[in-house]
Fold these 3 entries.
Entry 1:
Amino acid sequence: MATYYNNETILFLNGEFVKAADAKMDFYSQSLHYGYSVFEGIRSYKTVKGETKIFKAVEHYERLKNSAAALNLPYLWTADELIAATYETLSRNNFQDAYIRPVVYAPANMSFVKNEQSFIVIEVWEMQPFLGDNLLRVMTSSFQRPNPKAFHIHAKAAGHYVNSLLASQEAKAKGYDEALLLDMNGYAAEAPGANLFYEKDGKLVTPSLGNILPGITRATVLELCAELGIEAEEKLFTLEELKTADAAFYCGTAAEVIGIKSVDAYEFPKPWNDTVSRKIQTAYKCRVTEKEYKQEPELV
Ligand code: PMP
């Protein structure tokens, strides 16, 4: 298991910077008992100029606010104050390339009624930019994504992640790197913690919103496509359609852009280095570190 903190680690807890080792939360919290909390997964990067930059900080804190609203959790903070607190937490821990995990959680409450109060913690741990292109071997999960009529699936709610853990653990137990989950109607949806794109004839396709988490990396990929003149489409598609694609990738804050080698027995035929997906992978790495992206001549 990874180590997330040591005796020196500082976290932000309800307005104060405290040692992670001394921080306390209530074991009677509704969040612990019912999976009733919302969170974000954010990254900061050391830019080419040597500064620490939180990538898409406003977008992440907006999504946190929307997630809290979807779950009726009081949300008492502004994006500005939380972004300032995040930079301060990074600086107190001397981190530049880091993963940032804010969690909004509930007070002690064993009933199902909503609360007047919420708490927030911001934890940071070191994470290097993901390097290399180890293509993933993916299996179609026996688990579907949660039914959007049972959950607000656009919210990044802790409870939804039981589904992600089950799917990912199943895939790994069967010798795969990661799972692919379908939605309740059998359309390709997403990975346990990342969004899906496929490439066909130089065009990118990604599942439309509705049954997936609206990923900030997914939105960034769509932005990059527009900037680079790569055609992109959001639509629902089946596993059968995915298995006719030239290439595919997952994308998410933690995963960044990571190519997929195969889904079940289907291997994507196009060499990764010849795909526009690979171009997006490189352009994404440049974007997060504020490096100018120069199109590679052999790919133009
Ligand atoms: N789908 C799920 C289920 C996720 O957990 C994540 C990671 N937050 C994503 C997609 C990708 O979202 P983002 O790009 O905002 O990290």
Entry 2:
Amino acid sequence: MTSDLARPEGLDKVTGAARYAGDHHPDGLLHAWPVPTTVARGDITAVDTAAALAIPGVLAVLTHRDAPVLTLPADGDPTLAVLQSPRVAHRGEVAALVVAETPQDARAGAEAVRIGYAAEPHDVVLTDDHPGLYTPEKANGGHPAVRTHGDFDHAYQQADVRIDRTYRIGPLHNHPMEPHTATAQWADGRLTVHDSSQGGNNVQETLAALFGVAPQDVLVISEHVGGGFGSKGTTRPHVVLAAMAARHVGRPVRLALPRAQLPALTGHRSPTVHRLRLGADDGGRLAALAHEVVTRSSTLREFVEQAAVPARVMYAAPHSRTSHRVVRQDVPTPSWMRAPGETPGMFALECAMDELAEACGLDPVDLRLRNEPAVEPDSGRPFSSRHLVECLREGARRFDWAGERARGPRREGAWLLGCGVAASTYPVLVSPSTAEAVALPDGTFLVRTNATDIGTGARAALTGIAAEALGVPADRVGVAIGRTDLPRAPLAGGSSGTASWGWAVHEACTGLRRTLAERGTAPLPAEGLRHLADTTGAVKAGREYARHAFGAQFVQVAVDADTGEVRLRRLLGVFAAGRILNERTARSQLVGGMIMGVSMALLEHSTMDREFGDHAERDLAAYHVAANADIPSVEAHWIDEEDAHLNPMGSKGIGEIGTVGTAAAVVNAVHHATGVRVRDLPVRPELLLDALPG
Ligand code: MOS
């Protein structure tokens, strides 16, 4: 049974009653504002706080000289060791933190702090022949950095048709609508923080370790979160700074990061360079596939965008090489951004497949059908379910792909029209979770688990799962989430939240229902009846299958024949993601993901300033994301997919797959319209102008 439940907290959100991390006002609340470093590499040699401290309302300026000492665990994230050393690893790192009575005072104080540096030459330009490139042991997600099958070089040389192309994607920034914010308060050695986080348990444990207190003495509350896209997936510096400042001054402190500081402090998608080589017979059947990725990380932490990984999943090619190399530069530390790995990797692979289709004289949908693998190409494992072919066929039917392509690229007034397609994939991830179901004497039920709703509709999805498992109407089920004093649960990330929490909720409700049935009609005790579930053992089962969601996106664009401006006309995606648990919130996730892909293809542009060593576009005035007028038509569909090897609900994740593939479909459509292959995102008018008829 699929539900269409609306978000139970929807009214609170649209009326402003929902409280986000910055909406809490404990007595005596102070405000903090970071002072960013202005060199990209070197040491802090002087700090002058006198002018800042002279501002009425400024209480303190924390620097590495007087900030509380943090204990970073051996496997801890070095970006969280804030204000611990004079060393500068990148521009925009936190050099000092001003604490004041109002945000305005704190900001004025931050502008008045003077920092002196011994600057060193910095290295911030990524090239694919950088001498510092090395092969890491693993890419993000624990994937081996390098995989080879057969003899790629020989098979490639023997191929009838060869494609050898390089694709480049610059840095991309998460920019959730709610900037990273924390309100922190210490009382009797215990810390309470309201944090905009994708997962409070990680924040709780990290803060406990950093400040040397027991985890049970840290309460993290993330009741409502205004998006994250990966940038709130781990503990971020803002919450450490807020807790540090609150301890230092002995009053509650709020830190809401200014938007322009997000790119340097909260992670971003690292730039990637992709060399794609495809060798096929003249019928388009792949014999050889190489996807070699070059990316970078900061000097603080190795993070390797796993962009060659989807090439291990998508197409049958007996001879293959997929590899990652990384260089450590004086740049902000990259991290997760929506579908890390798959999003940039599938841009390159799916553009290359379009180029191969053209070289073979084949329809791009047909080319993909010819390369459908029987088992997962890299591992040889059977797929738990794979309906990419059905997604391609259903999307082509709904889009009238054959008709559009038969009509060819065409002109409509000032506009050149073309259409493109790409495939998408995202792994099925699931983590152990706990949840408790409570039956109350008034006939209602409460589900308790530390899930996080980052705007996705987690409460609606979990209410539906619980109501179905309990066999009661949804209006008798309440869901309590977003606090670390609830049963432990994993983060909202890796498109795994609903599967992970939902599995535990399903188990708890199933267990409770069984207990209630055994009791018969005896009245319930006043405190209710409880059943706690823990899926730690259960999630380990089923690893013999390769589990992924698949999809296909179809796009029509219009390119201004005079200016090269590209406008989206139509965007249609069809997905195979197991059972869709809540149609309303699932559609919203898939549509949102696809819009993010359009944004990546046409608008989002970040440049690393080689002189200053920083991202130049740091706010939403300079870093453009798609707005309503950029998206005239977007449709998300899915096919009914039954998969018994997932979880009791039969669901796959849907948070990230919408983005994957979309940018390639857009760029392939731009090629169809103009004849120009854009291999360097985003599509900019200057890349098209020379080829336009005017
Ligand atoms: Mo997603 S990038 O795993 O939050």
Entry 3:
Amino acid sequence: MSNPIGITGYDFVEFYVGSAKMWAYWHAKAMGMNIAGYLGPETGIKDKVSYYLVKNKIQIVITSAVKPSNYEVSSFVERHGDGVKRWSLKVKDVHKAFENSILNGAVPVRNPKKFSDDSGFIEEAAIKLYDDTEIVFINRDNYKGIFKPGFGKHIQKINLDFVETGLNEIDHIVGNVRINEMNLWENYINKSLNFETFIEFGAGDISTQYSALLSKVVRSKDGVPIKNPINEPYEGKKKSQIEEYIEEYLGSGIQHIAISTNNIISTIDSMKRNGVEFLTPPDTYYDMLKERASEISESISELKKFGILCDNSEGNGYLLQLFTKPIGDRPTFFYEIIQRRNGALGFGQGNFQSLFESIEKDQMLRGNFDRDEN
Ligand code: FE2
């Protein structure tokens, strides 16, 4: 059966954080997003606040508890720090998607439910993902209001001076899981969502002199651009960035979200001017890249100036990418900015080594590179 889940694309991603207002301001200023909606005491919800931000096809919700009685938010943030609670899939029929996923092994979190107000209704259901993370099925076709019932207009006037970033849509969402969990989650997602595995990085494929990881990428089978890499730590001389994530996040969860742009040079220039910090590749990286210059439309010196990485290790076309430093207080969640050229399908495997060396420099600064001996 083709696309039994009826997925038509990504919908929103929701973060649980310590201060939603500050996180919303950061996304507005740094990413050039518009604060399009708000939910909180002023709209009749007493124990939490949520900001709804939009930029082209990207929809982000940022939520904080304003009273400790909201355990769902406060306990998540106490344990994991600021992080992604759920990502969602637009589906044609929420009941059908949910029932199909449960029949195929998904663990239910919330049964399908309709939420309505004067502007119409939405339908939503949720299944479990890594530890405290969820996947939501949502349909908002019959809703004309702001995002969901309960949301109103943002009540504060903010005049933010930001440089246009040109960020476009979610390209992929990546999870970090514990040793021996990758295959389990690969199976779970593939069965529950009718996905398939299309790239595998095994032992030795992704490693530096000191640390390593395993990775599998699952994707929707039906031509919907939904792709989800799953990373697992692999033995190395030092503590890998995936191990560091699991320790600092206190569990498995979402490591990064990649967002696409049609002009990465201009996007990175803008985001840097908006104050975003990115990982920097070693200078030698661009000497290697010069040897492949004939295949690349962008000028190597421009890429070098902005620290943008380029990879063509997957065959078709090439991709340009760059990773922010972790955006919260813990070294956990970060963003990737990506531009795919000429049908490139990969995830930057050819860049992992130089990228990891850059992450390892930061891990050393945090004192998180050597394993604790006990
Ligand atoms: Fe990525």
